[in-house]
Amino acid sequence: DAGVIQSPRHEVTEMGQEVTLRCKPISGHDYLFWYRQTMMRGLELLIYFNNNVPIDDSGMPEDRFSAKMPNASFSTLKIQPSEPRDSAVYFCASRQNPGKDTEAFFGQGTRLTVV
Amino acid sequence: QQQVKQSPQSLIVQKGGISIINCAYENTAFDYFPWYQQFPGKGPALLIAIRPDVSEKKEGRFTISFNKSAKQFSLHIMDSQPGDSATYFCAALKSNYQLIWGAGTKLIIKP
Question: How many CB atoms lie within 10 A of CB B102?
Answer without folding.
Answer: 24
